[in-house]
Give the backbone structure.
Amino acid sequence: EVQIVQSGGGLVQDGGSLRLTCAASGFTTPYYVVGWFRQVPGREREWVACVNSAGTTHYSDSVKGRFTVSRDDASKTVYLSMNSLKPEDAAVYYCAARRTFAFRATCAGVDYVNWGQGTPVTVSS
């Protein structure tokens, strides 16, 4: 059974930094893609960033240059490092994953299957 467990998040001041962690387990194939999403109550979930098995990353325009996705395959952990945080970045952040069958399979536009529990990020102005 695939499990996605998130950690990190919390309260940070405007301009501060946080790192979110996403630990994936239970994949029966060596390749999987991981996406990060966020959601504000009352609004639709927004895609933020993703990374594939080859380490190729994609970012939404709203976070490009400020957020970085990285992965450590040895520990099956993916990180979302968030810098220069703004009040509009405040949301519940979700990590999601999906197995793939190719090392370079894209992480963009994927129908993610396995989701983490979400972790809140609050940015005070």
The longest strand covers residues 91-99. The chain has a mean pLDDT of 96. The radius of gyration is 14 Å.
